[in-house]
Amino acid sequence: MPHGELMNPQTMGMLHLFMQASLVVKVVMVGLLLASVWSWAIIFDKIFTYRRIRREIKKFERSFWSGKALEDLYVACKSHPTNSISAVFMAAMAEWKKSLEKGTHTSISLQSRIDKAMDLTLGRESEKIESKLSFLATLGSAGPFIGLFGTVIGIMQSFLSISASQNTSLAIVAPGIAEALLATAIGLFAAIPAVIAYNKLTHESARIIAQIENFADEFSTIVSRRLDETRTAPSSL
User: Fold this and answer.
1) Which end of the chain has fewer CB within 10 Å, C or N?
2) Which positions, given as ranges, span the membrane (predicted)?
3) Is the separation of the CB atoms in 96 and 69 below 8 Å?
4) How far is residue 56's CA from residue 85's CA, in Å, rounded to a whole number?
5) Could you give the number of structural domains in the chain?
6) Torsions phi, psi of 125, nearest 5?
7) Residue 206 lies in a domain
8) CA pseudo-torsion sign 22, 28, 34, 37
9) Would 25 be classed as within a structural domain?
């Protein structure tokens, strides 16, 4: 419908406004809607993933502090899919076993290698835990501006149409501006949940990573103590 034609308010629904928008504004709105759908997919995926990781951490720590031999725990972990915290434990145990096999088990060097193995594994697991969160941050910060870009383009085209029709009646101006403002509304619709979810999920991921880091520090202390106890004839943890 041309901008110069009167529009019944009852017909000015969201879909109608979208259909009357220009191609550029439509592209902006569709892009924002797709980004919003993807952001919600990430949000739900992270919620369920973080719940699973917290359960895995609790289960592993219960086994670790139960008094079970670390060798037995290592064997048990090898027979099950690796999770974030057990991956750190297995990296340390693998380095310990490798050093025993090669005879490179001096206290200082072995402790350093085990700590390095845990740090590298922790870094990889942290990247997995925090993956895709940057998309939420990007959408939260850029979404309103992308919507505003669509609005500016829409308003410019609306005014050009008004100029061509030489009719400045509010009934003529309003529909075109409403179409343009819809882009900003969609930008905010996409950005607001993304910002809230990003802040919440970032806090949650930081807590999970801190738990794994604390375990790595505690295990490093245990390894150091065992190395001191077995300095003359190290056998197993």
Assistant:
1) N
2) 20-44, 133-160, 172-198
3) no
4) 8
5) 1
6) -65, -35
7) yes
8) negative
9) yes
CA distance 201 to 199: 6
pLDDT class of 5 with cuts at 50, 70, 90: very low
Amino acid letter, 204: E
- The residue type at 231: R
Contact yes or no for 118/148 (Cβ under 8 A):
no
| Residue given tokens 């550029």 in the structure block | 24
Tokens, residue 114: 């085990």
The distance from CA 122 to its chain's CA centroid, rounded to whole angstroms, is 17
- 5 domain-assigned: no
Q: What angle, 0 to 180 degrees and rounded to 10, lies between the N-to-C axes of helices 23-64 and 70-78?
A: 140
Contact 180, 153 (CB under 8 A): yes
Q: Give the three-state DSSP class for 118.
A: helix
* Tens-digit pLDDT profile for residues 74-114: 888 887 767 899 999 999 998 888 877 776 556 678 888 89
Using alpha carbons, select from 193, 210, 49 the residue that is nearest to residue 129. Answer: 49
Q: What is the mean pLDDT of residues 129-137?
A: 95
Q: Model-level pTM?
A: 0.80
Residue pair 146/30 in contact (Cβ under 8 Å)? The answer is no
The length of the chain, given as a count of residues? 237
Residue appearing with tokens 């924002």: 32
What six digits make up the tokens of 6? 């009167």
The yes-or-no verdict on residue 11 having pLDDT over 50 is: no
Boundaries of domain holding 221:
20-229
In a domain, 9, yes or no: no
Token digits of residue 225: 């103590």
Eight-class DSSP state of 167: -
